[in-house]
């Protein structure tokens, strides 16, 4: 009986977890930040955006058969937090860019997958290394973004990053999720 309850709980959590899939033109708003817990270090943290990628794979045990990989950029509402006393539109713009950065790197992942992984054998041999390398690059870029912009407080640097992220999205537009 315990196992049935646990399985039902896990299925419910997966089905009702609040995720937003990145879409061109879709902007976050403060109501999307639903966590009540600030698990970030520091009392000067105004908001935290929990985002990243999910992927699914359809492949065969035959290494020569084609493989299908779907990669989506997601924002986790139930893990994203805000300090309601300190938020404003400018901070929301900074947080939106974290989500946009996740999409930039998802496009980079889609590009490499499209170029290098055609079969189930390719997937088995190469996907995890490609994924891990880009995940590491993504995490480092997110940290650098916050460091360089001082979490959005350096407006000149924020403007530079806004432009850079927009340009990257444009340069990689042929790798948008389909």
Structure report:
With 178 residues, the chain is α+β, with helices and mostly antiparallel strands. It contains 4 helices and 5 strands; from the N terminus they run H-E-E-E-E-E-H-H-H. The chain has helices spanning 2-16, 89-116, 120-149, 155-171; strands at 19-21, 47-48, 51-58, 68-76, 81-82. The protein has a 3-stranded antiparallel β-sheet. Strands 2-5 form a two-stranded antiparallel ribbon. Helix 2 (89-116) packs antiparallel against helix 3 and helix 2 packs parallel to helix 4 (155-171). It is elongated, with a radius of gyration of 18 Å. The chain starts with a helix and ends in a 7-residue tail after the last helix. Residues 1-15 have low confidence and may be disordered.
Please summarize what this structure is.
The chain is of the alpha+beta class and 178 residues long. Helices cover 51% and strands 13% of the residues. The strands form two sheets. It has a three-stranded antiparallel beta sheet with strand order 1-4-3. A two-stranded antiparallel ribbon has the order 2-5.
Summarize the SSE layout with pairings.
Elements: H1 2-16, E1 19-21, E2 47-48, E3 51-58, E4 68-76, E5 81-82, H2 89-116, H3 120-149, H4 155-171
Antiparallel strand pairs: 1-4, 2-5, 3-4
Helix pairs in contact: 2-3, 2-4
């Amino acid at each position: 009986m315990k196992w049935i309850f646990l399985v039902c709980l896990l299925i419910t959590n997966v089905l009702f977890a609040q995720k937003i899939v990145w879409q061109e033109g879709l902007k976050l708003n403060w109501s999307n930040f639903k966590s009540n817990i600030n698990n970030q270090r520091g009392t000067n943290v105004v908001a935290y955006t929990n985002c990243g990628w999910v992927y699914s794979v359809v492949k065969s045990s035959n290494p020569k058969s084609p493989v299908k990989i779907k990669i989506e950029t997601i924002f986790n509402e139930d893990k994203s937090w805000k300090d309601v006393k300190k938020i404003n539109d400018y901070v929301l713009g900074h947080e939106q860019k974290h989500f946009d950065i996740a999409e930039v790197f998802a496009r980079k992942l889609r590009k490499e997958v499209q170029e290098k992984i055609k079969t189930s054998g390719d997937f088995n041999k190469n996907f995890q290394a490609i994924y891990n390398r880009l995940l590491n690059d993504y995490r480092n870029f997110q940290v650098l973004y916050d460091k360089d912009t001082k979490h959005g407080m350096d407006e000149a640097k924020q403007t530079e990053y806004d432009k850079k992220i927009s340009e990257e999205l444009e340069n990689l537009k042929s790798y948008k999720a389909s």
